[in-house]
Amino acid sequence: MNAVRRWVSLVLGHPALSIAVLLALWFVPASADRATVQLLSFVMINILLAQSINLLTGIAGQISLGHAGFFAIGAYGSAVLTKSAGLPVILAVPCAVALAALAGWLLAIPAGRVKEFYLAMMTAGFGLLTYEVIKEWADVTGGVMGLSAVPSPTLKNLVVLGWRLDALEYFRVLLVATAVVLWLLRNFVQSMHGRAFFAIQASEIAAGSIGIQPGVIKRRAYAISTAIAGLAGAFYAHLVGYLGPDSFTIQRSVEVLVMAIVGGIGTIVGPVLGAMLFSWLPEKLQAFAAWQFMVYGLILMGVFLLFRKGFAGAIAEPARFVPARALREVLAAGGAGTVVGATTGAAAIAGTASAGSMPGAGAPAADPDTAPIVEVRELTKRFAGLVALDGVSLSLRPGRITALIGPNGSGKSTLVNVVSGIYTPSAGQVTLRGRDIGGRSNPEVAAAGLVRTFQDPRLVPSFTVRENVMLGAHLKHRGSMLSAALRTPAMMREERETIARAGEIMAIAGLTAVADQLLESLPYGYRRLAEVARALMADPEVLMLDEPAAGLSEGELGRLAEVIRWVRGRHKAVLLIEHHMDFVADLVDDVVVLDSGRVIYRGDMQGMRRDTAVIEAYLGVQTPRNADA
User: What is the spatial distance between Cα 589 and Cα 605, in angstroms, rounded to a whole number?
Assistant: First the structure.
């Protein structure tokens, strides 16, 4: 089965197949009847609609039950501009697309504040509102009577640049437009911008920790998605020649979502398959008359039970999110996974490499008198009546590893969350190279040079290790979304550089052997190291690791220790939250101990082991055995 899926993936991804399909669709309909050409036109429109919801929901993770509203804005926008305002179709369609994109961008502002059920209800409300506006604004939309005489091939009054289009020619315009949109989407998804969409779907907080701004990404996702839906609506208006409100109900929104899910949401080919099925199926079910919807429902149930990841997931391997050509070029040049002195593969993950085998691994700690990069002064954090941090002060210096330890509930993770921008401090100050970052958002803190990991790895499960690690370079990218969609030479050069650097980081972390395996298929240790590698890709000045040793084997602990020493050797400041005393003992330079939100010790490991307050609060007091027992 895997071999079949691999073969199908190669065929579907081959440029020759795409060209062959386009040529067939261009020439074959010339001998078909009008009804077939009309059906093929509807297929193209449904593909655009399915891709629009796929981008927003399947890729960016934003549920929408109101896409029929954007479809309607595109349709009525182009129809009104051509029929009532006299604007040429070639100008009316882009204007309608821009109007739909603007509506989506504006909706993203309130929608970005809610999630899941509430997000679905908000978008459904938008769809219902649009439907009511269409019905009531009769002077412009025609109301319940509809808007007729829209320029279309059906009415033989659709003229573009002086050329009167018939049904076949209009289908060919739709074919070219759909092919261009699919190409642009494929390029976009396999870029830094597309990978950022997936990152916020997996975890907005984790995405923010590497500099991805969830609010910005959501607005972009809504704008692009609704622009495509608006384009589908504009084409629909000029295909049918008549618009009525019943074509834009919430049922249409659900149908569009079902197309994407059944085909395989989160992929490019999946929504194409779903749109083809649900354009053809209703026609064939007409023969069942009164039983039509029952049969339709049974088919849907069967598909969902048999193909959990849609048709695309059943017949093809998971989609990849790195330009294949760029990856091949880097691998051919030996630039992905080659670091002098770094141990790679299974041997590395088993911990066979020595501490001195990595660049900087054996470097001595920096002078403790070096000026600190991060200074925390009298930091306090309250949650209602609970004081989680009470006047905490500490400093992080370049080239030194500082351990933050303490019993559960002592405030360690709260401190990291405040410093990294997830929580806002109630009082006190946090500075990074003299700049106050207290209260800044976590993407802003990451952009300033402070990156953190989490107690549980927060990665994108459907990505490979390489793709997850490449996410860490988000702040380093300079290419625009347009350059990503067009796949310009500058954008491809940037992708090759990112792939090569990710290879180097993976070699340091011992992940080269599993670089192109799906993260969700790998053991926990690889995931932990992949998250650390992603943080290293951001090249931060300060790295904060929240219990990175939890759940690791002895070999994996050895590898992690080497990675941390390597970071110190590059003159970075490291804050390490850890309960594993044996792991910390030979690794850290400084120790800060918290208890009940207060600092009870600051110094080195030897002094901590002798400190009475630490022994009582954390290490425990060993009671001598009774010799007579």
Answer: 8
